[in-house]
Amino acid sequence: MKEKILIKSNYKKNIANGILLVFLFSLLVGIFLIARSQRPRYNGYHYSDPDFLIPGIICLVLSTSALVVYIAVSNSEIVVSNLRVSGRAIFGRQVDIPIDSISAVGIISFLKGVSVSSSSGIIRFVLFENATEIFNTISELLQNRQQQQAPANSIPSTSEELKQFKELLDSGIITQEEYDAKKKQILGL
Q1: What is the side-by-side strand order in the sheet with 94-98?
Q2: CA–CA separation, 159 vs 142, rounded Å?
Q3: Measured between alpha carbons, how far is 78 from 169 in angstroms, rounded to an integer?
Q4: Distance separating the N- and C-terminal Cα atoms of the chain
Q5: DSSP assignment, residue 155?
Q6: Secondary structure tally for the chain: helices H, strands E
Q7: Do the Cβ atoms of 3 and 82 come closer than 8 Å?
Q8: Nearest to residue 113, comparing CAs of 124, 97, 102, 99?
Q9: Cα four-point dihedral sign 8, 137, 108, 117
Q10: Is the C-alpha dihedral spanning 175, 176, 182, 185 positive or negative?
Q11: Cα–Cα distance between 36 and 11 in angstroms, integer?
């Protein structure tokens, strides 16, 4: 079967830019507050003012966290074909998952993304304008796979089931009464 690309991700720049804006704002406020806590007071003596130092440190921690989140999600992309899901997940991890090994798919609404579950774990792809369409495409592929596998696991017909119980009776595994009860149950009598 020839591979055909069904859908690609459209990167959602406004969320990434928002995270970058939080980084820059927190960094500037943190630097300002820490600098303010170390300003000269009364006759040129320096002393630390914890009223500005602690919020400054908190802003720098927030800034660092925002930068880590930005780096984690900024390179995410996904390509869905009829044979595989591939792309870059969170932190730029390169991923290539065959459709046959995908067990579930979900939506990450907060970060506008998709999570794909396989035997190797849950892989998250985020910041897409078309996350819902990607989710629907993968779900449809999984449903088609299940429908193709369903005939192989079909339920035996009534006559086949009766034949199996007759063989159990003839081999002495079940009694005549058990066979008659099962026959009535199968035939709906």
Answers
A1: 5-8, 77-81, 84-88, 94-98
A2: 33
A3: 57
A4: 48
A5: P
A6: 5, 9
A7: yes
A8: 124
A9: negative
A10: negative
A11: 39
Is the Cβ–Cβ distance between 187 and 158 less than 8 Å? Answer: yes
50: Cβ contacts below 8 Å, ≥ 6 apart: 37
pLDDT bucket at 36, cuts 50 / 70 / 90: confident
Strands 102-108 and 40-41, how do they pair?
unpaired
Smallest CA-to-CA distance from 135 within 108, 103, 111 is with 108
Sign of CA dihedral 35, 68, 70, 19: negative
Look-up of token digits 């396989």: 118
Neighbours of 85 (CB within 10 A): 26
Q: State the pTM of this model.
A: 0.62
Q: Which ranges in 45-175 belong to alpha helices (H)? A: 50-73, 131-149, 158-170
Centre a 10 Å sphere on the Cβ of residue 111 and count the other Cβ atoms it contains. Answer: 21
Amino acid at 88: R
Coil, strand or helix: which one is 119?
coil
| Mean pLDDT for the chain overall | 83
Nearest Cα to Cα of residue 116 among 150, 142, 92 = 142
Model confidence pLDDT, tens digit, residues 87-113? 998 888 899 999 999 999 999 888 788
Instruction: Find where tokens 């870059």 sit.
Output: 88
